[in-house]
Specification:
Layout: H1 10-20, E1 23-26, E2 29-33, E3 39-42, H2 45-57, H3 66-76, E4 78-79, H4 83-93, H5 95-100
Parallel strand pairs: 3-4
Antiparallel strand pairs: 1-2, 2-3
């Protein structure tokens, strides 16, 4: 408690204190507090890929979009700081999601407005 990096300014120390209120350390395991007073286990970079693969394509469910993947990971009780960037890039690289995803049936050209002649005669 109260130990900061040597090069930290007062503003950085204040930011560290503010961010530290969202986290809880218990028995060497770091947890993040949620607004409803739940705890999410913080995982390191080595476990991130394993958790995302298991939730995305494993026994937890079918292939899903990035935002649904994030919600399922949070419901499973895991958290890491770069979640948003990681799950979006993970789903973009998933070969099965790219093959079986929704197809966009629109032409790659600009749309031009068309209007009826004035006055409109039926």
């Amino acid at each position: 408690m109260g130990i900061y990096p040597e090069q930290a300014t007062e503003d950085q120390k204040r930011a560290i204190r503010r961010l530290a209120n969202s986290f809880f350390l218990s028995g060497g395991v770091l947890y993040r507090r949620t607004p409803d007073l739940g705890l999410l286990r913080c995982i390191d970079a080595g476990q991130v890929t394993t958790v995302m693969v298991e939730v995305h394509a494993g026994v937890c469910g079918p292939h899903m979009s990035g935002y649904v993947l994030a919600k399922k990971i949070l419901r499973a009780g895991y958290y890491w700081l770069t979640m948003e960037h990681d799950y979006i890039s993970f789903v973009r690289k998933c070969h099965q999601c790219q093959i079986h995803g929704d197809l966009i049936h629109s032409l790659p050209t600009e749309l031009h407005t068309m209007s009826a002649p004035w006055p409109f005669v039926a």
